[in-house]
Amino acid sequence: MDRAQTYWGGEVEVSVEPHEMRMSHWVYAPKFADISGEQILFDLTGKLWDLISVSESEDALDLQLRKYPGDRPQVTLQVQRKGRVILVAGKPVDGAELERHLDTALIK
Asked: Which of 4, 43, 63, 85 qualifies as a FRET site for 17, CA 20 to 30 Å off?
């Protein structure tokens, strides 16, 4: 997995910071930066959330995440291009409250 990838023609960047949870168990925690606006939308570095994949469309990026140790379903986090709105389970969330909303999405 690349450590950083840009999307939407370089407007945004998704990077990962791998950290070892246990011997040979790595988590690739994502960070999302709006390069054009020079701000970090969210940063899960050092957290238990592992980036599985990113799907890009003209209007949104879908990030598939799972929480270590991976024994629960994946959660889709979406970032809409217009306004850089973050959605978890289809509901807008604040980047500062993201981890709480991701945990709640696991329960549902």
From this structure: 85
